[in-house]
Amino acid sequence: MPTSPADGIPGRWLRGAAVIIPVYNHGSTVVSVVEKALELHLPVIVIDDGSTDGGVDRIHCFENVEVLHHDRNRGKGAAILAGFERAAEFADWAITLDADGQHDPGDALILMQAIPDSARPIVVGARRGMSGANVPWTSSFGRKFSNFWIRLSGGPPVSDTQSGFRIYPLPEAMDLKVKAGRYQFELEVLVKAHWSGIPIIEAPVSVTYAPAGTRVSHFHPFVDFMRNARTFTRLITYRLLVRPFLIPRLHKQHGKE
What we know:
Blueprint: H1 11-16, E1 17-23, H2 30-38, E2 44-49, E3 65-70, H3 76-87, E4 93-96, H4 108-113, E5 122-128, H5 137-152, E6 166-169, H6 185-195, E7 200-206, H7 221-241, H8 243-253
Parallel strand pairs: 1-2, 1-4, 2-3, 5-7
Antiparallel strand pairs: 4-6, 5-6
Helix pairs in contact: 5-7
């Protein structure tokens, strides 16, 4: 039985992965998240996506933590991509987790161990306990909503499409040409990965939601619903009107008549 997260990490992970944490005004939680992420003994990259609360300043003293700064808020997707670009300079995998404290960074071991040998999948942390008293209705409803539209867009049958706790293969995830720059990045990347033949698997992870009034959230139901609608409309339109013509052409180019 592992005595610490590092003891349970295969050697290839210690050499080839980085933790990516996008941050936007999570000053009250980011220090604790980073401290727990460092227990994985992996490099940690924090992307400050235009925060104004000064919270990120408190983690500059940590060793093995690199902080990237956006001069303005560009969105979670843009922050994740910035983390990918930096991590790809030295790592083959990126572990993403949210800065609000809902994830236990130690559960990254569960995601790592779910990857079969010689496979390069995206691993999604399927959150357990989403029916708890502190879980906002927007999260529980939003997950079901997104799951349905992901399938309609030709995406994978994933049970928690909104989970931000994931492992991505690099550089494959960077080559998917995802257009969404905010929360919708995490939805679109699943669809385009599925289209591209990248396996997508799930593994169970825990989740902790702070009580209402203390939780840091930047989800805006109406605005994000409209952004989701635009993303899914674009994906479904492409799937129905463009992909049917591209697939035969790609098969012909690869000699698959």
